[in-house]
Structures are given as structure tokens and as C-alpha cells.
Amino acid sequence: MKHCVTKGISQDWTAFYQSIPLHYRYTAKFRLTAIAKIQSSTPYSTSAIWARIDHKDGSRGFFDTMTDRPIVSNEWKEYMIEGILDENASLLNFGGLCKYTGVFCFTNFSLSIENEKGILEKITINNPGFDGVMDQFSMTGWEQGTARKAPIEIKEYRFSSDYSKKLGTSYLQVIGSAIFGIDTQYTPQIKILLCMLQDVGKRMVRAIQELGIPEIDYLPNERLNSIGVLITHIAATEAYYQIATFRNSTLTEEERLLWETALNMGEKAHKKYIGHSIDYYLDIYHRVREKTLHLFRHKSDDWLRETSFHHHNNHHHWLHVLEHQSYHLGQIIMIRKMT
User: Which of 1, 77, 101, 266 has the most C-beta neighbours closer than 10 Å?
Assistant: First the structure.
């Protein structure tokens, strides 16, 4: 069944699946196999094949995502999941899972289910070799996601078909990139600092990226700020510390007009930052963060130890930026729960 696709989000994993209705009046074993490999420069990246049984009452039965035996090899190998279908099983969902960055490859999915004589019989599945995949929403026989909600574009991943001469078949290629990743062009201490900043940024984006305007503008009481105001305040504060530490100066008149309302928050900010979609706020945040990453490329760990304004060194100031964003992220999550 095809679902309506919702707008894209950012996250560090993606999945695909297809589902088979079940009408068994007896308990049966099943076996899912596929050939897969992964190419990645980070040890954190893994992939898996997965299978889940959904019951008639909506509860979940057997579920295996290969957590204890993830795919990490860059050589084509066959992987297997075996499980049990009980009489309450209504749907068997199965597919592949990709985590973090790299090139994830899958092909030759095969499914067998026991008949009443206890013999495994092969079940026909759609497009087991992933012919003709154009993107994550153009996969004949397959859907993006895990069958728990409508497919949604994951901005960090690209899906396509390729051909393996070694296997003599087509395969699915999923390329994962990291919007919040940090490359090797930074010195060691700066890289650690930026990794922490990016981690907080990633958690904030995940918390807000699917919010609607009523949730973004919600004001719990006159003493608190809306989520929209908090996002702009986070961006404004980071921009302020860019100017104070990298330029060692105060805001120009133009910069003051741009950021002062967001820095101060309060009633004036509530009137200015209202009625905008989440993309408006994410654009402000991402533009500031991109500049931060660019500015740090031209600095070394020695620069972190240099003293700038208020008699503190630059490391101190940017750890404050990290602490500041973490603090307001907690407020954002609290307000989101109140809406």
C-alpha cells in the first residue's frame, strides 16, 4: 500500500520495508535472508536486515534488527533472520536498516515460511533485487520507513539502484551523509568542541523539525518564551560569540538591528517571531552554524587558549555557547510537551 509522503526531516538512520499479510492458523517458523555489505570510514556506521511481526490487536510480536550482530563488512555476505509466526500474527514486515554515514548495499532478499508439514516454502516477494530504484520514494515493491508511520524523506540519505558484476544482479545502494558531522579539517580540541556543539544541534533539530506553527508560537505564560523565540535566541547568541571571539569586537549597528531582539527575548521578540514555519527558524539556525564551522577551520587549539573579552579564553566562551544551547534545548522540549 502506498502512503502519502510527508515533508523531509533530519536523522542519522533510515530504513525500508515491505509487508506481507499473514493468515496462518498454526505456529510456523520463517526465515529471511539477504545479501548485503557496507562501506564506511567511521566505526559507528552499521546496517542490518530486520523483521517484525504485527499482531491483529496492533501489538508487536517477534522483532529482530540484528542489534547483536550488525552488518559491518565491506564484502558481500548473506545474512539471516529466523523467527516464529504465531496464530495472532497479521503482518510480517521486513527490510533493511542503515545507521550513520557510508554506502549501504542490499540485494537478493528471500523469505521462506513453514507449511503445515514443517517444510520451509519460499514466499514470493516484490523486487528482491531492487531493480529501477530512483530515490527513497521510487522503489517498486518497497517503502521507505518501518511501516509504523507514513514514509518521510530523510535528508541525509539517497537511494538508487546499481549493478554488481560479481553477483550478476542489481542491488539497492543507500548513501548516507551527515549534516551534523565534523570532518578532519579541524585541530583535535576544536574538533571535540564542535562535535559536542553539533550533537546538541542535532538533538534540537530532531525535537522541533516536525512542529507546526501553533506549537512553535505557543506561549505557556508571560514569563516563558515560545519555541520560535528560543530558536532565534540560540542562533543570535552563537552569532554574538562569533563576533566577540573571532573578531574580538562588539556588534555593529547592522548586527545589533539583526540580533538584538532575539538576544533579549521577551515581549518584543514574541511580536517579531510569530507566524513562521519551522523551516524559517531552521534556516536561521543552520546559517549561523555554517558560519561557526567555517570560522573554526582557520583556527588552532592554541587560539582556544587565547584570552578575549571578559578576561576569559576562547575555549571558555565556546563551552558557554554549548552550555547555553543545552539549557534552552531543555526548555524547548519542556514547552513542546505542554502544547
Answer: 101
DSSP-derived secondary structure for 163-193: EETTTTEEEEEEEE--TT---S-S-HHHHHH
Task: From 169, 207, 199, 198, select the one nearest 290 (Cα to Cα).
Answer: 198
Mean pLDDT of 219-230: 91
**Assigned architecture for domain 188-338:** Up-down Bundle (1.20)
Strands (E) in 188-261, as ranges, are none
Residue 265 gets the label, from left (phi > 0), alpha (psi -120 to 50) or beta, of left
With cut-offs at 50, 70 and 90, classify the pLDDT of residue 76: very high
**Span 6-176 CATH architecture:** Sandwich (2.60)
Mean pLDDT of the chain: 92
- Position of cell 512553535? 216
CA 233 to chain centre: 24
pLDDT tier, 150 (very low <50, low <70, confident <90, very high otherwise) = confident
Continuous segment of H or E residues that includes residue 115: none
**What pLDDT shows up at residue 179?**
61
Of the candidates 204, 294, 238, which has an alpha carbon nearest to the alpha carbon of residue 10? 204
